[in-house]
Design goal:
By secondary structure, the protein is mainly alpha-helical. The chain is about 75% helix and about 0% strand.
């Protein structure tokens, strides 16, 4: 997420001169005493005070404007700065400064503007409104002179003046300003163009974006982000319509991100509603994360409540963002929260995210995070985060940095960089990764490239994926490309699967589409999956149910149970249904354990029923061992009960090995019983082998089994 405060960095020195000018017409009655007389004598000492209704001076409402002698520029600037710093109402004082600049003779204005511009940055101590107003006014009445100073003097002071001068000319003489850009290059040109765009954005945001496009601003340039943020604050619907019409790519994503963050600053509820209403599922999910992440940057606890209200499949990433921001703002509070979270993959992700900012909270916090975090993961996450940040700022520098890393880290980082490079040149990104030795990291990078490439040209991405040598790389890249295509147009993506010759690859592609489509429209995805040939139908349906079970497990369970009779005898169908039965049961038991348990035991005898019962036992025993034990004890003897008991034993053996031994003794399947008994005894002997021996002596076991277990204790 981009810090919202940075959006207006280019405006800091421009706000006074640019945004207040429309409020103060030439000749405004701000002059003390006789305004007309004072206005007729440019260059004479001027004293300003605020005016009340009808032009009467409202005494006591602001400090008196100092007597200024333009003939002594150094003293004049010093007095103006002192007045600005002492102001109790900065907006009123800046209006007075602007009126003062309007009354200056051209020669006096130039002298004061140059004196202000040539002061070092430390002179202003953060309040450069005097300099901005003088430079902006100078650029307005003498654009050629102001431009000559800013573009022909290669000094730190003249480079700093670029923003004020080009920003003013963006509205008073835009053609001259754009022509002058041709004399600049590199950082100065970028600074001038950004200032023009941000200044223009308050009046004509569409014109500002057109200017950036016409001047070929670099993709991802922060000026675009700033303009869209200003536009979103002024006209959220107009900004959203513009962004929605952009083609897929960095500019569209940046524009949508900017709108989300801009709206979230003032109206998080409206921003969240807009993000959730977007038609493209991946964009919607990403922008919901952006909005909640924006709130997290200011109020992590409020963001936590928003995150927990989102669909279960979205919460993992959202909680990562909350954790990171919370650690950055209040390490002790973030640690207290994470310590109270149940151990889970989500908790580990949050810890990894928090590790990036742990060092800012001191060495003790680092130690606490590392104690909770699996070895190695925090370092990998941090490396990837650094690589991604560098890639946006300086892609060439990031790639050079990556080459200096050890081999294992280099593969990880280049994998991250490839996704950024793929935004502008996917074929170059592919060549960079394919030059590395094959590894898990390069497999992931190739999939990421296919995903990005398919966002621009899905047919080309699929054609490239088909050329990869490794079966695994080819299948993963094909799946990634189709997944991206399915997110935007699942029907076309589904139609393209008919062109895949290899039956296994075709099935994998259809499974990918089914899973992606189901997250967006489960009913449509299920209808399509049912229309497939039998050899692919049940695998695709399994993916639909697996994806939709997180939000509606009862519906997925009902569909699965209803289709089981028709699947009998179809090759591969049993394996797919078994896998889905376990996944649906696991999702359901997290929301309603008794309902999930009743559904599981109601399935027909077979592997699917066994898998569902085992999944219920595994999940339920982890949260409520007593309730799970009671339910398993009531099951009839058979494979399902044995599997459920084995899952229960795995959960309780570390803390209650005596109960685990009793459960294992009653398992009917000899092989499963032996494995559970052996695991329990081996776990027990680590800390209390004598207690394990005594328990074995009294256990209800045949002598052969008892003897074998006693041997395990030696």
């Amino acid at each position: 997420m981009k810090p919202a405060a940075l959006v207006f960095l280019p405006l800091a020195g421009l706000a006074a001169g640019w945004f207040l000018r429309p409020l103060i017409p030439a000749g405004s009655p701000l002059l003390a005493g006789d305004p007309a007389a004072a206005a007729s004598a440019p260059g004479s000492p001027l004293v300003f005070a605020s005016a009340g209704p009808g032009g009467a001076v409202a005494k006591g409402k602001s400090e008196a404007f100092p007597a200024i002698k333009p003939s002594n520029p150094k003293a004049a600037i010093k007095s103006l700065l002192a007045f600005s710093r002492a102001a109790k109402n900065p907006r009123r004082s800046q209006a007075q400064l602007l009126a003062f600049a309007d009354q200056l003779a051209p020669a006096d204005l130039k002298a004061l503007a140059l004196e202000a511009a040539n002061q070092p940055g430390r002179y202003w101590a953060g309040d450069d409104s005097v300099k901005s107003i003088l430079l902006s006014r100078w650029a307005e009445i003498a654009p050629a002179e102001a431009l000559a100073y800013a573009t022909q003097n290669n000094t730190p002071q003249s480079r700093e003046a670029l923003g004020d001068i080009f920003g003013q000319l963006a509205v008073s003489d835009p053609q001259r300003a754009e022509a002058a850009l041709a004399s600049l290059s590199g950082g100065p040109r970028q600074n001038a163009l950004r200032s023009m765009a941000v200044r223009l954005a308050s009046l004509d945001p569409l014109g500002a974006m057109t200017l950036l496009s016409r001047q070929k601003a670099a993709p991802g340039d922060y000026a675009s982000y700033s303009v869209m943020a200003i536009w979103a604050r002024q006209d959220a619907s107009g900004a959203a319509a513009y962004a929605g019409a952009l083609p897929d790519g960095p500019q569209r994503r940046q524009a949508l991100d900017s709108i989300a963050n801009g709206m979230a600053q003032h109206d998080p509820a409206a921003a969240l509603a807009w993000a959730q209403a977007l038609p493209k599922a991946s964009e919607s999910a990403n922008l919901v994360r952006q909005v909640i992440g924006n709130v997290a940057a200011r109020d992590p606890q409020a963001a936590l409540a928003l995150a927990e209200a989102q669909p279960p499949r979205e919460q993992r990433q959202l909680l990562r963002d909350v954790a990171q921001n919370w650690m950055r703002q209040d390490g002790p509070a973030a640690l207290a929260w994470i310590k109270g979270m149940a151990d889970s993959p989500t908790r580990q992700d949050c810890l990894s995210s928090m590790a990036y900012f742990a060092s800012t909270n001191g060495p003790e916090t680092v130690r606490e995070i590392l104690d909770l975090l699996p070895k190695g993961r925090a370092r990998r996450e941090t490396l990837q985060g650094m690589a991604n940040n560098m890639a946006w700022q300086d892609p060439a520098g990031a790639q050079a940095w990556a080459k200096t890393l050890p081999a294992e880290d280099r593969e990880l980082v280049i994998g991250s960089l490839s996704s950024s490079l793929a935004e502008t040149d996917p074929s170059a990104a592919a060549a960079m990764v394919q030059a590395l030795p094959p590894s898990l990291e390069t497999l992931g990078a190739l999939s990421n490239i296919a995903n990005v490439w398919a966002g621009k040209d899905p047919e080309a991405a699929l054609a490239w994926a088909a050329t990869l040598d490794s079966d695994k790389a080819r299948q993963d890249a094909t799946a990634a490309a189709l997944n991206q295509w399915a997110d935007r147009d699942p029907e076309k993506a589904a139609g393209a699967t008919g062109q895949i010759a290899d039956a296994h690859a075709r099935r994998a592609a259809r499974d990918t589409i089914a899973s992606s489509w189901a997250r967006r429209a489960p009913a449509e995805a299920e209808q399509w999956a049912r229309s497939l040939p039998p050899e692919d139908r049940y695998s695709a349906l399994s993916q639909v149910w697996n994806a939709s079970a997180a939000d509606n497990p009862s519906q997925a369970a009902a569909s699965l149970a209803a289709i089981m009779p028709a699947a009998e005898g179809v090759a591969g169908a049993a394996a797919s249904l078994t896998s889905s039965a376990g996944a649906v049961a696991a999702a359901w038991v997290g929301q309603d354990p008794p309902a999930a348990a009743n559904w599981a035991v109601g399935l027909p005898e077979g592997k699917a029923r066994d898998a569902a019962v085992a999944a219920v036992a595994d999940q339920w025993a982890g949260s409520d061992t007593l309730a799970a034990s009671t339910w398993i004890n009531q099951l009839p003897t058979g494979p399902s009960r044995d599997q459920a008991a084995a899952r229960l034993i795995d959960k309780i053996a570390p803390t209650d090995p005596g109960a685990a031994l009793a459960w294992a003794s009653n398992i009917q399947d000899p092989e499963r019983q032996w494995q559970s008994l052996k695991n329990t005894v081996n776990s027990w002997k680590v800390y209390n082998p004598e207690a394990a021996r005594q328990a074995l002596d009294g256990a209800n076991l045949d002598e052969a089994t008892r003897t074998k277990l006693q041997a395990e204790l030696k």
